[in-house]
């Protein structure tokens, strides 16, 4: 494996079809852990942070784990800014690790379902990212990795409080469970404006696709738990699963009602967005996200038949600023990115439709 493999490849395993993937793009479990006898990364010395990074490199790098294969250590101080941005856009590392950690690293599995961040806000952040609605499966894998690491590491743990973390909101289980959901019908009907406050009252939070502080573009929302103290990991995940199941039901029923009551208007919206993607010569990030959302809805409703959801998942990553610059070999001004983005979308859509046509003819 190599850094280039992770940064040049647009599609991770979590972007492929999974259970309920018409609504739920991915499920993520993240466990925050710290090493006993070391200060938290936010107040550690550079020497301590380097010692921790070296320990993980010698102990876990290129070491296999169950069916995920070998883990490869990527060091933040050996990466170019564009490469870091690509990994953030693929949800493999956090913006905080990319921006602030000279002594940070990340152990990545070859299929990119597992990412273990080193010296982020906490010494260890175990992330399992699965396609579709698979929170239980992601939790099971995260717990296995947690046990695997604990064979060599003494965690900072308090009998009353649980796992000790740099941020008080993570104390307890250290668990952050989240799903990324595509909710265009709830947005179009403005039902989302009533749903989000109700979700917040249940101890969950709704954010954009890059987590805290990010904007919900392209009708994509990240739903996650806020409470980590006083509940078991199982209870936290089950509570989130219950809410997500209700959201899936509401989104599907709202899509059906919209299609039945406003079929022509909905088809017009979908085809206009498809035309923008297929024929425009300049397109910005936000417009791309909006059009991809419309076309994704069109695919799910059977309006668009020659493009797959997997292709849209690829475009969702390929058209981000970091990946776009990586793809074209270097820094681009914003106006240059808009031109290259439209060209890339046209190329990918044409290849997809030609491939599907050949398959129909055979």
TrEMBL record:
It comes from the Bacteria. Belongs to the ATP:guanido phosphotransferase family. PROSITE patterns: PHOSPHAGEN_KINASE (PS00112), PHOSPHAGEN_KINASE_C (PS51510). The lineage of its organism: Bacteria, Bacillati, Bacillota, Bacilli, Bacillales. The gene is mcsB. Keywords: ATP-binding, Kinase, Nucleotide-binding, Transferase. SUPFAM superfamilies: Glutamine synthetase/guanido kinase. It comes from Metabacillus niabensis. Its EC number is 2.7.14.1. This is Protein-arginine kinase. Residues 23-254 form the Phosphagen kinase C-terminal domain. InterPro entries: Arg_Kinase (IPR023660), ATP-guanido_PTrfase (IPR000749), ATP-guanido_PTrfase_AS (IPR022415), ATP-guanido_PTrfase_cat (IPR022414), Gln_synth/guanido_kin_cat_dom (IPR014746). It catalyses: L-arginyl-[protein] + ATP = N(omega)-phospho-L-arginyl-[protein] + ADP + H(+). Catalyzes the specific phosphorylation of arginine residues in a large number of proteins. Is part of the bacterial stress response system. Protein arginine phosphorylation has a physiologically important role and is involved in the regulation of many critical cellular processes, such as protein homeostasis, motility, competence, and stringent and stress responses, by regulating gene expression and protein activity. ATP binds at residues 26-30, 91, 125, 176-180, 207-212. One of its GO terms (molecular function) is protein arginine kinase activity. The keyword Transferase applies.
């Amino acid at each position: 494996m190599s850094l280039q493999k992770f940064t040049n490849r647009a599609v991770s395993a979590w972007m492929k079809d999974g259970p309920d993937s018409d609504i739920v793009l991915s499920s993520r479990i993240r466990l925050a852990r710290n090493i006993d006898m070391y200060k938290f990364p936010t107040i550690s010395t550079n020497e301590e942070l380097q010692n921790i990074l070296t320990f993980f490199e010698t102990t876990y790098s290129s070491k296999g784990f169950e069916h995920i294969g070998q883990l490869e250590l990527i060091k933040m101080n050996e990466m170019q800014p564009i490469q870091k941005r690509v990994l953030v856009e693929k949800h493999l590392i956090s913006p905080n690790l990319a921006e602030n950690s000279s002594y940070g690293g990340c152990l990545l599995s070859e299929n990119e379902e597992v990412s273990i961040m080193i010296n982020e806000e906490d010494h260890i952040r175990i992330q399992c990212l699965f396609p579709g609605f698979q929170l239980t499966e992601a939790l099971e894998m995260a717990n296995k990795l947690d046990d695997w690491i604990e064979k060599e590491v003494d965690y900072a743990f308090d009998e009353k409080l649980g796992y000790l973390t740099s941020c008080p909101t993570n104390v307890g289980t250290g668990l952050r469970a989240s799903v990324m959901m595509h909710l265009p019908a709830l947005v179009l009907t403005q039902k989302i404006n009533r749903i989000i406050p109700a979700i917040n009252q249940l101890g969950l939070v709704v954010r954009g696709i890059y987590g805290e502080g990010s904007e919900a573009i392209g009708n994509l929302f990240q739903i996650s738990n806020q409470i980590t103290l006083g509940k078991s990991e199982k209870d936290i995940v089950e509570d989130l699963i219950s809410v997500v199941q209700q959201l899936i039901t509401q989104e599907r029923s709202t899509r059906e009602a919209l299609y039945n009551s406003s079929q022509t208007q909905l088809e017009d919206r979908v085809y206009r967005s498809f035309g923008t993607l297929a024929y425009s010569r300049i397109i910005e990030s936000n417009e791309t996200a909006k059009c991809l959302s419309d076309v994704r809805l069109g695919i799910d409703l059977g309006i668009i038949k020659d493009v797959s959801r997997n292709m849209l998942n690829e475009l969702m990553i390929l058209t981000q600023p970091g990946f776009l610059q990586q793809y074209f070999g270097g820094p681009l001004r914003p106006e240059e990115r808009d031109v290259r983005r439209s060209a890339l979308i046209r190329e990918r859509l044409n290849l997809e439709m030609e491939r599907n046509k050949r398959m129909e003819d055979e």
